[in-house]
Amino acid sequence: GQKHNVCTFIGYVNINGSDRMLDDQLPYLGHIQNLEDILLNHQEVEEIIIAIEPSDHDRLQKILARIHNFNIVVKVLPDMYELLSGKLKMTNIYGALFIELNRDVMPLWQQAMKRFLDIFLSIMAVVLLTPIYILCAILVKLSSPGPIFFLQERIGLNNQPFQIIKFRTMFVNSEPNGPQLSSSNDSRITPIGRFMRKTRLDEFPQFINVILGHMSLVGPRPERQFYIDQIIQQEPQYALLNRVRPGITSWGQVKYGYAENVEQMLDRMKFDLLYINNRSLALDFKIMFYTFAIVIKAKGK
Length: 301
Fold this sequence. Notes:
alpha/beta; 4-stranded mixed beta sheet; elongated
């Protein structure tokens, strides 16, 4: 016969203050406000079932953003429209239908292939592009005093910080008053830096980040913690982007280009969320093709 997964329920958490109707069936663990502490105290939890109406999107998003750091499967009640449109993969618990939210849509063999291609293509790129690296290094040195490379801390897979490597396109000490985003007519960018940004040559050293495992060729663009904190305030779903390796190029980068403020970051993020929910090698190749076209046409913004 078919093997059933056996669930052991350790308790329940209530979302509104007063509802304790499950007390005679399950131990009461506490209120949703203390969700993080409850999860830290119960490391054995593998799965959470959220019994909220899917139409209550805001509430659902806020809860999901709070638990995305925990390696936990989340199941929610399906929305009837989505159920009927056949878009959902269902999992069954005791005869009730639930949707599993945070499964990775990319099959394991594709994930392995993606990592292999990342390393193989990045090593090839570093070897073949050595003359371009040398030329860029000379241009950066001539553009203004300062180092050739620019290192900056970004947040990567599972919220791990790493140093992103770029060719320097700005004058040294361009952020005296803390983090600042660049704009298309930014006086802090050197003339050669402007050309390098248009052709995306400034991003080429990130092949090293890919080989080191910090990044992938294709994935959401990594941001600084300073901006992630602001974005999550407005759009909790942004937290989901750190569940995959960030990329040198992304669907957001192709469709949108560089973001000049938090609003634009949010707009670009929508494309990156689309990417995460539709991840496949075919989509990666499509994004790489578009990126290649941008580099050749020097249409980057």
